[in-house]
Design goal:
about 20% strand; 12 helices; 4-stranded antiparallel sheet; flat
C-alpha cells in the first residue's frame, strides 16, 4: 500500500493532479454506463410492448376460442327471458332453440312433511325444573282482587316451587293431561290477573298465557319435559319412553345414537347430511319432532327403525323386536306424513307435471332449457312467455375488449418505433403493425355469408365527414348497435368473419402468436439480444474500471516517490549548508 501525503515536500497538490488525470479516464466509463442504461431502457420498453401485444392476443382468444365449443363459444351462448320473473325464471344453454314459448304455472310443487303421531315428550310434572322448560329466572306478577304479589323464579326452581309461591299468593296452578297450565283463584269469589309489564321472567310470553272467559288463565303452549339439550338415552330425558342407543334411518342416511347424543345433535346431523334429504325440527310447544323433505313432490319420506327405538318413540314407526332387541317387523306410519304436491304447468298449451319446481329439459322437452317455477299464474298476471335468444352481452363485451386492446397496441408500437424512441429501428414491429392493420381494414370473402368486412359489423376506423375529410386508419371504433343488428340478421356470417377458420380474427391471432412465440418469436429473440448486450456492456465497464484503478494506483505511487526524492534532496541540502 502506498501512503501518500500530497505535496508535503514539493508543496504541490498532487492528489488533485491524480483526480484530474483519473477523471479523464473515467469519462469512458460514464459513456459506457449511459449506453448500458439505454439498453436496459430498451429492454423495459420491449417488455411493455410485449404486454400490449399479449393483451391483444387475450382479447382475440375470447372470440377465436369459439372453435373449442362449450363455454368457450361466445357465439353459441343463449339467454332465456321470462316475461314475469315472479311467475318463473329460466336459463338456456348453447343448444337451446331460439324461440318464444307460452308458459302457465297452475300449481307449485311442495315438500312432504312428517310429524310425530302424538307428543313424544312427557308432560311436565312437579319435579320438572322451570329452566328445563325454557323459563328464565326473573319475576312474575300476579294480582288477586287487585293485590299484587311478585313471584321470584330462581335457577333451580321446579314446577312444585312455582305452584307453592302462587298458592301463597292465592293462585292455584295445575298442569292438565295435554300439558297446558291453568291458573285460577283459590278463593272462587276472587278475581285474578297474571303477568304485568314489569315482569322480568318470560313465562307469560313463552307459554302464551291468556285470560279465558271464565276468568282463569290458560297457557296456549303445553309444558313438556323433553328439550333438545338433554341426552336422549338418559333416564330423565323427558320423553314418554326411554330411548335406546343404536341406529335409525332417514332418507338414505343412517344415524347413530350414543350415550351422550342429544336431540340437538341428531337434528343437526339430519339437517347437514345430504343423504338424509330432509330437515328436522323439534317443536317445544307440541312436544313433537317434524321432518320435512328437501325434495319437492308427492313422495314419502323414508323413515326406518334400526337398532334404536328412536323413530318409534317419536311416533314415526312401529317396530317389534325379539328378546335380543333384533327387529322382527317394522312399519312406517304413512298417515302422519302430509304428502307434498307435484308441480303442474303448461308449455304452449300442453299440460305437464313435475315433482320439482325446477323443470329440466327431460321433463319440459325444451332442449337445454331449465325453468324455475316461482308462483301460480293468476288472472291479473295474464299470459306469461319465455323467450330464448342469442346472448349478445358477452360477445359485445369481448369485441369492446378487442377494439380497446387493438388501439392500445397500435398506439404503443407507434410510440416505441418513432424517431428517437427505444425501438425505432425494429422493422419487425412496424411490419407487424401494418399486417394487423391490413387485416382490420381488409376483406374476407371466403366465408360465403352476408359480411366480409369488419366495418360491416360496426368495427371500423373513424368515418370522414364534412368537417373531417381524413380518417385514422390505425384506430378502430365500435358501433354496438350495428354489431347487434348484424348478429340478428346473419349470426353465422358474423361468426365466420370473426372466428371462422379463415376469419379475420383467426388470421390476426396467428400473426400475434408468431410475434409472441417462445424462442422463435420477435420478443424472445430481441430480449435475448438485449440481455446479451447488457451482459457484454457490464463486462466492459468492469474491465475498464479495473484499468482505471490500476492507473490511479500507479499515479499515486509515482507522485509519492517524487515527494520522497524531493524530501531527501532538501535534507541533503540542509546538511550541506550546516557543514
Amino acid at each position: 500500500m502506498v501512503i501518500s501525503f500530497s505535496g508535503l515536500a514539493s508543496g504541490l497538490d498532487t492528489a488533485a493532479w491524480v483526480d484530474a488525470l483519473v477523471s479523464v479516464k473515467q469519462e469512458k466509463i460514464t459513456t459506457l454506463q449511459t449506453e448500458l442504461k439505454d439498453i436496459q431502457k430498451s429492454k423495459s420498453t420491449l417488455s411493455d410492448t410485449r404486454s400490449s401485444v399479449s393483451s391483444l392476443r387475450t382479447a382475440l382468444e375470447k372470440l377465436t376460442d369459439a372453435k373449442f365449443g362449450g363455454t368457450f363459444d361466445l357465439f353459441a351462448k343463449n339467454t332465456a327471458t321470462s316475461s314475469n320473473t315472479d311467475i318463473f325464471t329460466a336459463t338456456a344453454g348453447n343448444n337451446a332453440s331460439k324461440q318464444t314459448y307460452d308458459i302457465t304455472v297452475e300449481q307449485l310443487a311442495t315438500c312432504t312433511k312428517a310429524s310425530s303421531r302424538e307428543p313424544a315428550s312427557a308432560v311436565a310434572d312437579d319435579t320438572t325444573k322451570l329452566t328445563d322448560l325454557g323459563i328464565k329466572e326473573g319475576t312474575l306478577a300476579v294480582f288477586v282482587d287487585g293485590v299484587k304479589t311478585t313471584i321470584n323464579i330462581e335457577e333451580d326452581d321446579t314446577v312444585s316451587d312455582l305452584k307453592a309461591q302462587l298458592a301463597a299468593a292465592g293462585v292455584k296452578a295445575e298442569i292438565g293431561e295435554n300439558g297446558a297450565m291453568r291458573f285460577s283463584a283459590i278463593d272462587e269469589n276472587s278475581v285474578i290477573s297474571v303477568g304485568s309489564t314489569t315482569d322480568s321472567s318470560n313465562i307469560v310470553s313463552l307459554f302464551g298465557i291468556t285470560q279465558q272467559e271464565d276468568g282463569t288463565y290458560l297457557s296456549t303452549n303445553s309444558l313438556f319435559k323433553a328439550n333438545t339439550s338433554t341426552k336422549l338415552t338418559s333416564e330423565n330425558s323427558g320423553f314418554n319412553e326411554k330411548i335406546t342407543a343404536g341406529t335409525f334411518t332417514i332418507g338414505d342416511a343412517t344415524f347413530t345414537i350414543g350415550k351422550d347424543t342429544t336431540l340437538s345433535d341428531i337434528i343437526s346431523q339430519i339437517n347437514n347430511t345430504d343423504e338424509a334429504q330432509a330437515y328436522a325440527y323439534w317443536d317445544d310447544a307440541t312436544g313433537k319432532l317434524s321432518i320435512t323433505s328437501k325434495k319437492e313432490g308427492a313422495s314419502y319420506i323414508n323413515i326406518q327403525a334400526g337398532t334404536s327405538n328412536f323413530t318409534d318413540v317419536m311416533g314415526f314407526t312401529e317396530t317389534e323386536r325379539d328378546e335380543e332387541g333384533n327387529v322382527t317387523s317394522s312399519k312406517m306410519f304413512t298417515d302422519i306424513q302430509e304428502l307434498g304436491q307435484n308441480a303442474r304447468f303448461t308449455i304452449n298449451g300442453t299440460s305437464m307435471t313435475a315433482t320439482s319446481n325446477t323443470i329440466t329439459s327431460d321433463v319440459s322437452r325444451l332442449t337445454d332449457v331449465t325453468l324455475t317455477l316461482k308462483k301460480v299464474n293468476t288472472e291479473e298476471d295474464g299470459n306469461t312467455t319465455l323467450k330464448v335468444t342469442q346472448n349478445t352481452s358477452d360477445l359485445v363485451s369481448a369485441v369492446k375488449e378487442f377494439v380497446s386492446a387493438y388501439n392500445k397496441t397500435m398506439d404503443k408500437i407507434d410510440e416505441v418505433t418513432a424517431s428517437g424512441a427505444d425501438l425505432q429501428r425494429e422493422t419487425s414491429l412496424t411490419s407487424f403493425k401494418n399486417t394487423i392493420r391490413t387485416y382490420a381494414n381488409g376483406s374476407n370473402s371466403t366465408n360465403g355469408g352476408a359480411y366480409n368486412l369488419l366495418s360491416q359489423l360496426g368495427i371500423s376506423t373513424g368515418k370522414a365527414d364534412g368537417g373531417n375529410l381524413s380518417t385514422d386508419t390505425t384506430t378502430l371504433e365500435f358501433d354496438e348497435e350495428a354489431f347487434k343488428k348484424a348478429l340478428e340478421e346473419d349470426p353465422e356470417s358474423v361468426r365466420a368473419i370473426l372466428a371462422g377458420d379463415n376469419g379475420i380474427f383467426n388470421m390476426m391471432e396467428s400473426t400475434v402468436e408468431q410475434m409472441l412465440s417462445a424462442t422463435t418469436g420477435f420478443f424472445d429473440i430481441k430480449q435475448t439480444t438485449l440481455d446479451s448486450d447488457i451482459r457484454k456492456m457490464e463486462e466492459k465497464i468492469t474491465k475498464q474500471q479495473s484499468r482505471i484503478d490500476v492507473y490511479q494506483t500507479q499515479l499515486e505511487k509515482k507522485f509519492s516517490n517524487m515527494e520522497l526524492v524531493i524530501s531527501q534532496m532538501q535534507q541533503n541540502y540542509s546538511s550541506f549548508l550546516a557543514g
